[in-house]
Amino acid sequence: MKYVFKNAMVLTMNNDELLESCDVLVENDQISAVGSLNNEQINNARVIDASGKLLMPGLINAHCHVPMTLLRNYADDLNLQTWLFDHIFPVEERLQGEDIYYGSLLGIMEMIASGTTCFIDMYDHMDDLARAVEESGIRAQLSRGMMNTGSGPDFSEDARLNESIDFYKKWNGAANGRITGAFAPHAIYTCSPAYIRTIVETAQKYDAPIHVHLDETLTEHEDCLKKYGKTPTKHLLDLGVFEQKTVAAHCVWITEDDARILADKKVTMAHNPSSNLKLASGIAPVPKALSMGVNVALGTDGASSNNNLNMFEEIHLAALIHKGTNRDPLLINAMESLKMATLNGATALGMDNMGVIKEGAKADVILIDMDKPHLMPIHNIVSALAYSVQASDVCLTMVDGVILYENGEFKTIDKEKVIHGIKKCYERIFQ
Ligand SMILES: [Zn+2]
């Protein structure tokens, strides 16, 4: 299929370039031209009038647990340990494949309606999650979250590890490459060192990336110092985790030395401002990490600790909270915050042809209706995107050259079927 976005304002995210009125040609899964197009290029394309609208790369959610939409507003105003161990884990024990499938589709609907084109996720019942990704048309890096059950040192019979391997073999590169796999030791407080080492060896065998929670709370940080005599970051470094391409979620309590390690090892720090604020985990030292060369991407975390999957809200918060807590209005400007949600997310995935509008890039793009009272007058588009845009201003979302959402309509997901499915799951799990 061939599309032309005609007369769009384009924020390319390529050297902060902003094009005032421009045509963008999409052929198959790629952007094939940016600029004025000739008749031959436009021939046989569907022309989308984008005047008054802004085209930009789709947002990349670097840390999520998408099926947790089912637990949205279920257990709030609690600290992380109580929330997770007393409320979330017991319900998660009861979840079945169908719950994961519908919970994922619900989350994916929310994501594509708010401009997210790709997400990095760890959860359980991954075949059902991957099926939702495959059918919906969104892009995702997926991994089965692993926690220790056996004591080791031999984990060859470990069910979670074996599921992870089977999942990786089955789904990595699936759906025209939209789905990629990873290995996910949940966290240092749920995985023993021997278990993490085994997971790393497995990831090495498949040349696969790693997705892990890291240094989310002060409790995790202090317990690690007590138990292992080092910080959580140093602990994972010594276990070899960072030899693989790694996305480390949170990193709220990292030290300056830890940030140096993350920068040296090219680990992506997934910053989740809403989740960290809601669970009162703290505020990650993002300005420091960025200044030391760490790749910082943005994530929502699951919908039960956020309680939505709205990346524009994360962009907004990321651009505000570091200013406020450091009493420095120059920290994390609008463009830096937008980069975290686009380019840096693509870097986290090792995809330099994503998170940017340029010839040859993946056609993962969104269109934003700028013709709204709360966006006028448009003095500065970048500021408008970070500080004024609402997720509901997204009017079109395209992934891999396919339109998934346009003017309030889901093109690949049957909304009524998902709502019906969610109601059934909700009744079975909670009533
Ligand atoms: Zn998480």
User: Over the alpha carbons, how many angstroms does the gyration radius reach?
Assistant: 21 Å
Number of DSSP strand runs: 18
Class inferred from helices and paired strands: alpha/beta
* Structure ligands: zinc ion
What would you call the shape? globular
Terminal Cα separation, in Å? 46 Å
Number of helices: 16
Uncertain spans, ≥5 residues at pLDDT below 50? Answer: none
| Domain unit count | 2
Proportion of residues in extended strands: 15-25%
CATH class of the largest domain: Alpha Beta
Q: What's the CATH topology name of the largest domain?
A: TIM Barrel
Q: What features would you describe in this structure?
A:
With 431 residues, the chain is an alpha/beta fold. It has 2 domains: 2-58 and 354-410, Urease, subunit C, domain 1; 59-348, TIM Barrel (Alpha-Beta Barrel). It is 38% helix and 23% strand. It is built from 16 helices and 18 strands. It has helices spanning 39-42, 80-92, 97-113, 126-136, 159-171, 193-206, 218-228, 232-238, 256-264, 273-278, 286-291, 311-326, 334-341, 343-348, 381-388, 415-430, and strands spanning 2-11, 18-27, 30-35, 46-49, 53-57, 59-64, 116-123, 139-146, 179-181, 184-185, 210-214, 246-250, 268-271, 295-298, 365-369, 394-399, 402-406, 409-410. Strands 1, 2, 3, 4, 5, 15, 16, 17 and 18 form a 9-stranded mixed beta sheet that branches. Strands 6, 7, 8, 9 and 10 form a 5-stranded parallel beta sheet that branches. It has a 4-stranded parallel beta sheet with strand order 11-12-13-14. Strand 12 (246-250), helix 9 (256-264) and strand 13 form a beta-alpha-beta unit. The model has no long low-confidence stretch (mean pLDDT 96). The chain binds zinc ion. Zinc ion is lined by residues 63, 65, 213, 249, 301-302.
